[in-house]
Amino acid sequence: MPTAGTRKIPFGGDYNPEQWPRAVWDEDWSAFGKASIDTVTLGVFAWSYLQPAEDTYDFARLDEIVAEAVAHDATIVLATATGAMPPWLGHRYPEVNRTDFEGRHHTYGQRHNFCPSSPVFRRLSVELARRTAERYTGTPGLVAWHVGNEYGGACYCEHCAAAFRVWLRERYGTIERLNDAWNATFWSHLFSDWEQVVPPNALSEHWRGPNHTAFQGITLDYRRFMSDQLLACFRAEKDAIRAVDPDTPVTTNFMGLYQPIDYHRWAPHLDLASWDNYPPGPREQVRMALAHDLMRGLKDGAPFWLMEQTPTITASRDVNPVKRPGVMRLWTWQAVAHGADAALFFQMRQSRGACEKYHGAVLDHAGRTDTRAFREVAGLGAELATLGDAVLGARTPARVALLLDWDSWWAVEMTDGFNRHVSYVHTVLQYYRALWQANVGVDVVPVTADLSGYDVVVAPLLHLLEADVAARLEEVARRGGSVVSSFYAGRVDEDDNAYLMDPPGPLGALFGIRVDETDSAEPGVTNPVALRAPGSAADDGAADLVSAAGLVFEVVVPQGAEVVGTYGSDFYAGTPAVTRNAFGDGEGWYVATALDDAGVAWVVGQVLDRHGIAGPYADVPDLEVAVRERDGLRTAFLLHHGTEPVEVPAYTAGTDLLTGREVREGETLHLDPTDVVVLRERP
């Protein structure tokens, strides 16, 4: 279990005392005590001092660091130190350095710099993981192993080319099946030997960057392959740990909505999911909530760990504003509300040099404990101590599933012929935002998930449709549920080849339509879509809402579906833009255009109303409510992301676990911006 060995939500983060003189360590631990920090992640970037040469290992410094943590009764997350290679490795074995998309073989440098297909890297990284596990298994306070760090990137070297061909043989079996999958008769691409296959990059199938490829099937497979190769590196280190330590959970830190790696393919191999939360802007509460729910969904709803966040600024961008007062606390509680069973930072003390020396930290270069950042961290630490184990292991109830699919993400954004301005994540976020503002519980799950427990399944841009997905979505509707999808749905099979049938392909029966044409427009060009509730005819009066739709306008021909939204302009004015189709005891909704946020919210609201799914305060912008349950007890988190104070009636009675205040149902709650209430609902 992720919470094994902990009595409360672990609080602390990435600690690298090897970067500072020994005398600083005592200051650090004194400060940690003041902030109720009880957890440290150690050794993430320790490879160069743990193994100063190929035949030399030196654990003396890490021994001291671990001993200090044990002496302070800390919870320890111990890394395998393979998150960045030492210089000697890149220079002695140049093959371990990556070859980039442009075909340039790199020399040693930076961090994400190893070739995942390199036998040398695999041998040395696994050996270091094995030795680390042998030395520290059984260490008091050790609760998790941290393999690698923020896996990502890609390599296009000869080792990867050879490994890709092996991967393809295992996937397709015969060269004939490969040619069929890649539609290789196009442009005379029929392969007669596996050795003719090369990685798709700027020197082969691509132009104008990674998303412009002559053969989507080849590129799609290479992305799948590279995700699998990096996973193989993780699994090899995990196996080395498991040979020594059969019990302690093993994880690696993901990066949320990160396109290069299919986290669903990784999920079965993690003992717990964890991720690093660095949102791209100051008003990203919906995106963060989606990423939290994605991480929770990786392990069938089990809690995850927030492995990294910054107390103040992120130092990797052109402009790096500080988090405003209260925001760090608010965002941390949001993570807990969505299922986090740990709240950790990068970093505990600012580095003296290099590119992250100004990255936010619990302690600045001077080690001060009277800064605003430290005071806020200490205040949060005290609150987490007060909360104790009240929500550890608690789950999130949800009647709604949102499907997020890496294959569709990859395929949509490298497909020619439609609109290159369509963003998979932006579209998924639109539908998630409508659910988030409605304050209903959502599980973000893969297309392979068991959908039998959900009343509503939302699947935007379900472009690539594999095997039995259509049948399982039909079953959701047949038993009385609702399925919502959007333009581009059901266009291609698992090989990214078009279905030889009317769009939306195998989903046509569920949605009761066919798509005749697909029009596109530049950003900013809109077509008004008039939306009317099911059962109301178009000539019965004014529309419920007129949505400004853009980018994509599919021309839809109903095949039994009811029209609930119509285009207002162009040659297809008056034709369907949104439809609802009765299917079994349920329904399928199809949105044939990129509605604006209000339009998406209207569609989602219609579906939620049909099932009586409603959360509190849906009419209060930016007041988020999330619930966790354990042992029959519900804990609600009220999180105010707005910029102005609000007053709302308490929707239920309970106890605020942070203040001890008893709350009566209906009494007025005053919430200032960034306020948080953790309400243990009264049974």
UniProtKB/TrEMBL annotation:
The keyword Chaperone does not apply. SUPFAM superfamilies: (Trans)glycosidases, Class I glutamine amidotransferase-like. One of its GO terms (biological process) is galactose metabolic process. The keyword Magnesium does not apply. Substrate binds at R111, N149. Residues 398-613 form the Beta-galactosidase trimerisation domain. Gene3D superfamilies: 3.40.50.880, Glycosidases, Golgi alpha-mannosidase II. It catalyses: Hydrolysis of terminal non-reducing beta-D-galactose residues in beta-D-galactosides. The active site is at E150, E308. Pfam families: Glyco_hydro_42, Glyco_hydro_42C, Glyco_hydro_42M. Keywords: Glycosidase, Hydrolase, Metal-binding, Zinc. Residues 622-681 form the Beta-galactosidase C-terminal domain. One of its GO terms (molecular function) is metal ion binding. CDD domains: A4_beta-galactosidase_middle_domain. Its EC number is 3.2.1.23. Belongs to the glycosyl hydrolase 42 family. This is Beta-galactosidase. The lineage of its organism: Bacteria, Bacillati, Actinomycetota, Actinomycetes, Micrococcales.
